[in-house]
């Protein structure tokens, strides 16, 4: 059985092949170094069922099987770790300690990236950067001014501000229709979204976590102080114990 995150239910699950694989037309087989169809790499496709009992929906998996006879494809295809899948796994990370609208937009950016929509992912990342500034009370001017204002107010570091401008530049190219000037690759988009997550961590998540740690420390100290006070009731002080001890010694001496 093949193992993957199901594109339907989002669970990591086993995918059981339910129909025998069939060989696709040569037009979709990979090409060799000379651009000629590689006849040693026929592409096989099959239907797989999700093992999650609350899902059990079918996905399609396919791969090129190097020098595999048709009679061996049924056993070989499920073993492949590099199967291509449809529907694809859609990644939608959940964010804590971030305003709802910003968190949803950042999650949507990752969803775009997971289906190969690099331009959409970068455009949404740009929106996240600008919305972050607005959430911190910086509402005037364009996105460049907002980034600089976050830097000047100490909300983000100078290095973070410089990288934010790269997101701004890439997002502006897409927003203004300059699609062919500087194409966005999947790797470029992945790097930009990693930075977007770091920005959100710096502005929202890290301060929230530090505040929780401070509160925890404060509550622990208050709890220890209350416990110490409760342990110093009448008749239980060190002086009372010593006096009682002297009396007992005199009576028994």
Described by strand count, sense and barrel closure, the largest sheet is:
6 strands, antiparallel
User: Residue ranges: pLDDT <50 for 5 or more in a row?
Assistant: 236-253
Strand content: 5-15%
What is the approximate shape?
flat
| Broad structural category | alpha+beta
Radius of gyration: 31 Å
Number of helices: 7
- Can you count the beta strands? 6
Instruction: Let me know the average pLDDT.
Output: 86
Helix fraction by DSSP (H/I, runs of at least 4): 40-55%
Straight-line distance between termini? 86 Å
Instruction: State the order of secondary-structure elements, H for helix, E for strand.
Output: EEEEEHEHHHHHH
SSE inventory with pairings:
Elements: E1 2-5, E2 12-17, E3 22-23, E4 43-50, E5 58-64, H1 73-76, E6 84-86, H2 100-114, H3 118-135, H4 143-152, H5 158-175, H6 186-230, H7 238-252
Antiparallel strand pairs: 1-2, 2-4, 3-4, 4-5, 5-6
Helix pairs in contact: 2-3, 2-6, 3-4, 3-5, 3-6, 4-5, 5-6
Write a compact overview of the structure shown.
This protein has helices at 73-76, 100-114, 118-135, 143-152, 158-175, 186-230, 238-252; strands at residues 2-5, 12-17, 22-23, 43-50, 58-64, 84-86.
Fold and architecture overview:
With 253 residues, this protein is α+β, with helices and mostly antiparallel strands. 49% of the residues lie in helices and 12% in strands. It has helices at 73-76, 100-114, 118-135, 143-152, 158-175, 186-230, 238-252; strands at residues 2-5, 12-17, 22-23, 43-50, 58-64, 84-86. Strands 1, 2, 3, 4, 5 and 6 form a six-stranded antiparallel beta sheet that branches. Strand 1 and strand 2 form a beta hairpin. Helix 2 (100-114) runs antiparallel to helix 3, helix 2 crosses helix 6 and helix 5 (158-175) crosses helix 6 (186-230). The longest helix is centred in the C-terminal third of the chain and has 45 residues, at 186-230. The N and C termini lie far apart (86 Å).
